[in-house]
Amino acid sequence: MVKAILLQVKFLVTFTEGAKFGCYGLYDVIKIMFSLILIECAYTQDTTNIQNKMSWQPKENKELYKKNSGLPKLRKQYGNRESAVPVYSMNHSYYQSINNNGIYFSKYIQSNFWCKGRETVKLVFKYRSYCTGSTFKGIIEKLNHLNNKAKKRSNLVIDSNLFSLISNVEILKLAYANLKSKPGNPTPGIVSETLDETNMELLNSISNEIKNESFNFKPSRKTSIPKKDGVQRNLLISPQRDKLVQEAIKLILTAIYEPIFLDNSRGFRPNRSCHSALRYVSSDFNGCSWVISCDVSNCFNDIDHSILMSLIESKITDRRFSHLIRKCIKAGYLEFTTYKTNIIGTPQGNIISPILANIYLHEFDKKITNLIPTFNICKASPACKEYKKLSKLNLKFKAKGNFDELRKTEKLKRTVTAYDSNFNKLKKLNYVRYADEFLIGIKGTHGDSKMILDNVITYLDELKLVINTDKSKILNMNNDRTEFLGVRFRKFQRRLWVKSYQKGNFIKKKVPRGIRFEAPVSKIRYKLAFVGFIADNKPCPRFIWMHNTHDQILTSYNAVMRGYLNYYSFVHNYSNLVSMVYYTLYGSCAKLLAAKYSLRTIGKVVAKFGKQLSSGKRLFFKPKYAATHKLNVKSVKH
Predict the structure, then answer these.
(1) What is the tens place of the pLDDT at every residue in 608-617?
(2) First-to-final CA distance of the chain
(3) pTM (whole model) above 0.70
(4) 268 burial class (0-12, 13-18, 19+ CB within 10 angstroms)?
(5) Which of 310, 332, 307 minimizes the C-alpha distance to 322?
(6) Rg over CA atoms, the chain
(7) 148 — phi, psi (to 5°)?
(8) Which of 323, 348, 112, 317 is nearest to 222 (CA)?
(9) Between β-strands 220-226 and 333-335, what pairing exists: parallel, antiparallel or unpaired?
C-alpha cells in the first residue's frame, strides 16, 4: 500500500482569542487544502484531527466517528477553531494525533466512517464539564480526598494546606470549565473583560498572584432589580478574574462543608432544589397541626463578617486561605462613581455568597435540630372509646349471626377514628430550610408553636439576624394556606375514602388527609402583568420581542410557559394554572405577530399561521391539562 502523509503542520488557533479567530483557522485550513492539489497522490477521504491548544479544553475521543464542523459558538470549544492536522492516503485515511508525551502516532481508520462528537464526563460532586478530564484528574482526586476527609472527620478541623490547592492553576481551569457555559457569568463587572477572554496567560497570572498573596478582589458593579413590593433588590456583579477565584473557593468549601450540612438544608446544594424541599413538606408535615412560616429579613446583606469568619476558621486551620475569603467579602462595590465597602453581608450576585450563607445558617439549623429530641413525645394515642364500643358490638353480633345489626355498626365504625384525635401528649417537630426561608411543622398546641417561635427569634438574634415580621406567621394546617417557595399548601378539607375489595365485597375505608398543593394563580397573573404580558386585564403583546424572527418569538413564549408549567406540574389546581397561562401567552403571542406582520386581528393571524401559530419550523406549545402530581427530585446519597 502506498500512502502519502502531509508534513506535520499545525495552525495554533485556540479558543482564547474568541470566536473571531475561528474564521482565520478555517481560512488557513482551506489554503492548505488547495496546496494539496500539487501532491501527486489520490485520496479518498480526509479526516481532520482536532488537537487542543490546551489539554484542559474539551476534546474528542481518540477514535473519531464524526468530524466536528462549523464555526465555534460562543464559549463552546470545537470545530475549526482548534489546531488541525490534515492527513491523507491513497485508499485509506489515517488518524494522526499526539499523545501525552508529545509524540505523534498514526492509527489505521476506514475511509468511510461517521462520528460521534465530544464526550462529556461528570466531575467531582456531580459537577459537569465538557472535558475528558486528562489534566483535571489530579485536581478532582484532591477535591475528592478532601471531601472524604471531611466525611470521616465531620466534627474535627480540616488541617490540609488549602492555600496550595487554591493557588494551583488546575483548579482555576476547572473553575473556568464550570463557569463558561452558564448564561449569566459572561456579564462584565466594572471592567469590560468577560470570561470569553480567558486564556492560559491570565490563569497563570492569577495563580502567581495568589501564591504571592498579592491577589486583591476588585469592587463589584452594583445593579438593582425590582421586587413585587416595590423594593429594589441589589445585585453585585464581580469582574472576570474574581469570578474564577470565587468559583475555585466555592469548590473547596463545597468539598469540606457538603458532608457537614444537615439534610434539612435544601438550598444551593448539589442534587437539592425547591422540589426536594416541597417533597419533604409533603412527606413529613402531613401529621402537623401548626406551621411556623418564617423568612429572614435581608439575610445575605446582614451576615456578620466576624461571626462568619470565626465559623470558617473554627473548621479550617489554613489562615492564608481564610484570609483570601475575608478579602472577597470585603471587596466592596461601585455605585455610579462612588466606592463603598462591605462592612457586613455577602451580597447577592456573587458566586461565593450562597455557600457562605449556608455556612452561616448551619449554626441555626443545628440549634433547631437539637430542639427535636427534647420536644418530641412519641407516646401512642389511646384508642377512641366509641370505636372500642363499636368493635365489641361487631364481635357480639357476628357471634350471634345478627348480620343486619352488624352492617349498621360497621357503617358507624367507619365514621369514627380509631384513635383519640384530642390526645395532646403526642408532640412532634419537623424543620426544613431553603436559603433564607424555612418552615417548622408542629404536632402540638398553639402554645407550643409560640414557644418554638420565641426560640427561633433568640437563635437568629445570636447570629445578628432578624425575622421578617410581615412574612413570618403561625398558621393552622387545617384552615390556613401556607406559602413556601411560591407554592401554597394546606390539608385537604374533605376526608378521602378508598374502596378496597375484601372477601368478595367492596369496602370503603377512611384514609388520613394529605396535603393539598396549589399554585398561586393570582400571583402568577400579577407577575405576567408586571413583565408586560397583560394590560387592562387582557393579553398584551410584548413589543420588546417584536424585532425577533417568528421562530424566536415562539421560542421565547414557549420558554415562559414551560417554565411555569414544569415548576407547578405537581399542584392540584394545575388545570386552572394551565388555562390562565395558556390563554394569556397565546393571546399575547398572537397580538405580537399581528403587529409584526400588520395583520391587525388575531383571526387573521390564525388564518395565516394556523391555530398553533406555526412558523414552518416551530409551533406554539399546547400543554396538557392533566397534572403529574410528581415532584422533580433527584435521589441524594448520604
Answers:
(1) 999 999 988 8
(2) 59
(3) yes
(4) middle
(5) 310
(6) 32
(7) -65, -35
(8) 348
(9) parallel
